[in-house]
Write a structure and sequence with these properties.
Number of helices: 14
Catalytic activity: 5,6-dimethylbenzimidazole + nicotinate beta-D-ribonucleotide = alpha-ribazole 5'-phosphate + nicotinate + H(+)
Mean pLDDT: 97
Number of strands: 6
CATH topology of the largest domain: Rossmann fold
CATH superfamily of the largest domain: Nicotinate-nucleotide-dimethylbenzimidazole phosphoribosyltransferase (CobT), large domain
Protein name: Nicotinate-nucleotide--dimethylbenzimidazole phosphoribosyltransferase
EC number: 2.4.2.21
Low-confidence stretches: none
InterPro entries: Nict_dMeBzImd_PRibTrfase (IPR003200), Nict_dMeBzImd_PRibTrfase_bact (IPR017846), Nict_dMeBzImd_PRibTrfase_N (IPR023195), Nict_dMeBzImd_PRibTrfase_sf (IPR036087)
Bound molecules: nicotinate mononucleotide, 5,6-dimethylbenzimidazole
Number of domains: 2
Family: Belongs to the CobT family.
Order of helices and strands: HHEHHEEHEHHHHHEHEHHH
Length: about 350
């Protein structure tokens, strides 16, 4: 039977192996000992393969931030009240959030998509409204989303990737905002990786030790409730996910299909990346991992994704902020790769 999410499994754009080879050859000729720029070399080569250009550049950056409320917040799993999700949507739109500042600094396009929070448009029409209801259902009692909510959330992410494509973006960053979404991300990771709640539950926005223990117990109950339905990634997402996590999944798959490199942010974005890869393995070619979040379970998610993040700054904010902070590094890697002289051009003697 055809569903409205058949697009999820459609082909991913192949990488350009000729451009990769050309960039690799160029790296060998630049005026430095081979390998002396460390991981910056591989980064530029990876962008060459993704961009189909021997000399890639990453100027146009598109940031989609998705917000959604979570029914699981009722279980007392966050250090902050649920109202913060909607309050932060306003803050994003008014320019006061971390990601607002970072986007401005990077001259990146920032769009904010409200998928279902207490936020009311009011005087902030710049927030894109894709209202799927007042947040997800409490997945300690029932599936987080209905089938149609899941489809709409995935599509909202794909639409964001389409807008990035139309804007000529060379990099897509997906951010999220959702009080209690580290519980969702942890539950998703447990279900997909067969790990225990003790391994994945962490402080999130700042739970103390007792709070983390309670969160792990809630996740254990959740996994028991849904146990017989956790064999398929899309269904795992519908049952344990959030609107913003599903939107990120759709955005990552959509970006990879369009051939836009994705810079993955922290813990929650990585959970979405894992689902995206489980649904459509080719997505992995288009993912780069920006940073190692301070949320302890991120280590396990990164391992499962064979990811080596660029930075480890102790950040645990979300919003796409860790990814945004890594953009200058990528820009510099590409600038070095494209702008340095070769040994022949500079008249510098090569290795003996
Ligand atoms: O991205 C991360 O690594 C990250 C780690 C911890 C918390 N967060 C952010 O904090 C919120 C979720 O935390 P919590 O404690 O309410 O589950 C949500 O809005 C996330 O963007 C984000
Ligand atoms: C204030 C605040 C800002 C955030 N941004 C992303 N998650 C967040 C959680 C809180 C609590």
């Amino acid at each position: 039977m055809e569903t409205r999410t058949d697009w999820l499994r459609q082909a991913i754009k192949p990488l350009d192996e000729a451009a990769r080879a050309a960039a690799q050859a160029r790296q060998q000729q630049l005026t430095k000992p081979p390998g002396a720029l460390g991981r910056l070399e591989g980064l530029a080569i990876q962008f060459a393969a993704m961009q189909g250009s021997e000399k890639p550049q990453v100027e146009g950056v598109f940031i989609g931030v998705f917000a959604g409320d979570h029914g699981i917040a009722q279980e007392g799993v966050s250090a902050f009240p649920q109202a913060v999700t909607a309050e932060m949507v306003k803050n994003f739109a008014r320019g006061g959030a971390a990601i607002s500042v970072l986007a401005k600094q990077l001259s990146a396009k920032l769009e904010v998509v409200n998928l279902g929070t207490a936020f009311e448009t009011g005087d902030l029409p710049s927030v894109l409204q894709c209202n799927l209801g007042k947040g997800t259902a409490n997945f300690a009692q029932q599936p987080a989303m209905t089938e149609s909510q899941l489809e709409a959330a995935l599509q909202a992410g794909r639409d964001s990737a389409d807008r990035a494509q139309q804007a000529g973006a060379q990099l897509y960053i997906g951010g999220e905002m959702g009080i209690a979404n580290t519980t969702s991300a942890a539950a998703l990771a447990c279900a997909l990786l067969g790990l225990s709640p003790q391994q994945l539950a962490g402080p999130g926005t700042g739970l103390d030790h007792a709070g983390v223990q309670h969160k792990a117990q809630v996740i254990a109950r959740v996994l028991a409730l849904h146990a017989s339905h956790l064999n398929e990634p899309r269904e795992v997402l519908r049952r344990l996910g959030g609107f913003e996590i599903a939107a990120l999944t759709g955005a990552f798959i959509g970006s990879a299909q369009q051939g836009i490199p994705v810079l993955v942010d922290g813990y929650i974005a990585s959970a979405a990346a894992l689902i995206a890869v489980r649904i459509n393995p080719g997505v992995a070619d288009w993912l780069l991992f920006a940073h190692h979040s301070a949320e302890p379970g991120h280590t396990l998610l990164l391992e499962a994704l064979h990811a080596e993040p660029l930075l480890n700054l102790g950040m645990r904010l979300g919003e796409g902020s860790g990814a945004a902070v890594a953009v200058p590094l990528i820009r510099l890697a590409c600038a070095l790769h494209s702008g340095m002289a070769t040994f022949a051009e500079a008249g510098v003697s090569e290795k003996i």
